[in-house]
Structure prediction request, 330 residues.
Amino acid sequence: MRIAVDAMGGDHAPDEIVRGALLYRARGGEAEIVLVGRADEVRRALGRERPGIRLVDARDVVAMHEHPASALRRRGDTSIGVATTLVKKGEADAVVSAGSTGATVAAALLTLGRIKGIDRPALCGMLPTTAAKPACILDVGATPEADVRNLVQYAVMASRFMERVHGLVRPSVGLLNMGEEEEKGDRLRQETHVALKGSDLSFFGNVEGRDVMRGTTDIAVCDGFTGNVLIKGLEGTVDVFRESIRNDIFGGPLGKIAYLFGWAGVRKMRHKLDYDPYVSAPLLGVDGVSVVTHGRASASMLRWAIIVAERAARSGLVGAIAESASVARP
Prediction:
């Protein structure tokens, strides 16, 4: 198993990306990591040769302000382009990037192509929940708009993802809406509700934004614009909540004393709110495994992105989605 990692992608590349690769290997990761980027910079961050890690030189980077598809077509030596090409050639089993989401999606579409029968790819966002299980939101930004057919396909792809990567049996699917009643929402949501209800998926019904982190359903289906706004808002809320606990409740001398008494509960809550394992977003619907993680990815986030990519590749996720593609036709 080989995972290609875009070493130049992300706010803290290549240092934090390299640390993430090293952390993955140090914590027992078995896949070979192929770091793709400017070899001199990556080698400096790496320090010395490491077992299970090798370098592939790529001199160019797609900047965040560039038009992704145009940059990839004009320049063939970008780190995300070369890393994705390794998957296409069979020289890697998956690609991981903390760089431009648009560039990662464009590279996957231009190089790997879509799975036959899937109209649009979708980014699968994950969040921790108070039910002590992850929740999947699809789409979180690959395609801003969607029609009924797209949303049904998203539900099918997300179900295969939760089955293969997270081990769930018949994961429950909720349609993100402005109310629980069947007649709620615009025409798109109403028609999608009818299509999902008539499918062979484990359809729960409509869910609201507040239900996502409660773990009401395993999957929340929505268009990419709605999903992107929702997941970033929820991530921001968790960040504010954690900072408030650290600074407002346990800050200062008395706070440190209170922390000693409440340590067990704080540790449990911190673990529950830790979204490092979930911040990676696999791009479902393309003919290969491509995983996007946060632009401000820490070494821990990058390690988990590699783990998700490895699980997806080992479990045959792409093949499972391809087999289900014909089902996703309302």
Notes: The domain at 119-280 is CATH 3.40.718.10 (Isopropylmalate Dehydrogenase). DSSP finds twelve helices and eleven strands in the chain. The chain has two domains: 1-116+285-318, 119-280. The first helix runs from residue 15 to 26.
